[in-house]
Amino acid sequence: MDNTAPHTTDDAPSGPQNHDVTVHLSPTARALYGLEEFDGRYDTWIATVHREDVNRVRDTIATAFRERAREFELEFRIIRANDKALRWLHARRLPFYDEAGTPIRVFGVSVDVTEHKRELVELRNFTETLEQAVRDRTRQLEAENEARRRAEESLRQAQKMEAVGQLTGGI
């Protein structure tokens, strides 16, 4: 399965207080989440979200519903149910509300961005390594320049002394 392709979900309203909703996941989305069997429960879905991201995901959803947002986006980690693999998802959700402003349905797309996240980490590590190498080389060049400056100063002093010696020797 190509995990970089968009995966659609048709989520019922979900948020920190709403655990009795039905969540509909397409077969592709179920595969993305590693859910071979899915009971449609919000709690089953949220259980796939990495424990460090659960509160942020719930807060984002609750804020979007409270503000009656027309769309919202999330980035979060999941632990796939079938293979326990850690994956990063970028999700875009489009909530629909009834006349009273209560969320009644959420459509969304989730994209596996794990490889992109890994590439960013590698790029950051490479950048830090390169910056450290530049700092080290700069210190080395500064030390060499200082040594060169001292040697030139010593040479000038020696040349002055030689000139004084020649002048005094000629008198």
Word description of this protein:
It is built from four helices and five strands; from the N terminus they run ββαααβββα. It is of the alpha+beta class and 171 residues long.
Radius of gyration: 32 Å
* Global morphology: rod-shaped
Number of strands: 5
Q: How much is the average pLDDT?
A: 85
What fraction strand? 15-25%
Low-confidence blocks of residues: 1-8, 10-17
Write the layout of secondary structure elements.
Layout: E1 7-11, E2 23-25, H1 27-33, H2 42-46, H3 54-66, E3 72-79, E4 86-97, E5 103-112, H4 114-170
Antiparallel strand pairs: 1-2, 1-5, 3-4, 4-5
Structural descriptors:
single chain; 171 residues; alpha+beta; 5-stranded antiparallel beta sheet; 4 helices; 5 strands; 48% helix; rod-shaped; disordered N terminus
Compact description:
The protein is α+β, with helices and mostly antiparallel strands. It has four helices and five strands; from the N terminus they run ββαααβββα. Strands 2-1-5-4-3 form a five-stranded antiparallel sheet, with helices on both faces.
